[in-house]
Amino acid sequence: MKLSKVLVAVAFAAGLVSITAHAAGTCPNNGVVRFGVEPYESAQRMLPVYQDLAKMIGDKIGCTVQLYVATSYNAEIEAMRNNKLEFGEFGPLGYVLAHQVAHAEAVATFAGEQGKPATYYASIVTWPGSGIKTLADIKGRSFAYADPASTSGHLFPAFGMSKNGIDPDKGVKGIYAGSHTASFEALRNHKVDAGELNSEEISSAKLHNEYDPSAYITLWKSEPIPIDPLAVRGDLPADFKARLASVLSTLDLHQLPEADQKFLASNENPELRTVPQTDSAYDQIRDLVSTLHIDLAKL
After folding, report:
1. Are 175 and 141 in contact (CB under 8 A)?
2. Average pLDDT, integer, range 27-43
């Protein structure tokens, strides 16, 4: 696989929503707070949900909120690094890079069982008839990753391969599908012999009646991974940053429309609310980065 030497230039898919400010004078950036989201699902599915979420956050903080769905993981990171975002939802690996280069600070995440920060898992799967029976059999076969900066769509599958004697760069014919949904579609339509499939994408596919468990064979599964953090830009005014962190870590997603709740609900987010999160929760991601000798700056 080829890691880009330059971060992807900032670009965003259409998807902007503004919420009237209640107290623009207490908000940074001339009263506008910009909320970035990575493309973990298709924009068509994400936009209406995150527009409603942005409105709810805007109402609570009393600012105008603008929502952007980035075209790539790195586009969101680059946007925060260039002070074009005040906060965002990042994938775990994307967050580690954003913390390193864009001063992102994790303050919240989605709640799992018993009100604790939720987790999810990554896996490597194939389909019946591919001729692959064990993980070792994927050597030399086509393999769908999601995105170079994706935790469960790249880092963990690569880690799983490495631990089992397979070079994740040269041991498979890797392609980057662009998102978890695209990777899943490549598997579902047998465009690749094997690929990554995380538990969040499985939940989404079940919601849309697109997942048949008998159609996939799991070859490897990760340990629990901390779910996406909501992170604020570290150089925000202290008072506003504290207020924003408080709002982001106490959201009740039951206040959203029922369709939004169905989209956001999953095995990893059963309580439909957010809870506080810390930067240290992502230290295991940093350990994996070290194990795989990944230069985050070159992702």
Report:
1. no
2. 89
How many Cα atoms within 13 Å fall on the side-chain side of residue 152? 30
How do residues 174-219 score in pLDDT, each as one tens digit?
A: 999 999 999 999 999 999 999 999 998 998 899 889 999 999 999 9
- pTM for the whole structure: 0.72
Exposure letters 83-113 (e unless 16+ CB within 10 A, then b)? ebbbbbbbbbbbbbbbbeebbbbbbbbbbbe
Instruction: Report d(CA 70, CA 82) in Å as an integer.
Output: 14
How many other β-carbons are positioned within 10 Å of the β-carbon of residue 254?
10
Least Cα distance to 96 among 281, 293, 268 occurs for 281
Phi, psi values for residue 131, rounded to 5°: 90, 0
Q: What structural domains and CATH numbers belong to the chain? A: 12-111+228-298 (3.40.190.10), 122-222 (3.40.190.10)
Task: Enter the tokens of residue 271.
Answer: 């309580």
Q: The tokens of 220 are what?
A: 């490897």
In whole angstroms, what is the distance from residue 108 CA to residue 117 CA? 8
- Give the contacts of 281 (CB within 8 A, at least 6 positions apart): 106, 109, 117, 226, 229
Q: Spell out the alpha helix ranges (H) of 156-282.
A: 156-163, 180-188, 199-207, 238-248, 258-264
Q: In the predicted model, is pLDDT for residue 21 greater than 70?
A: no
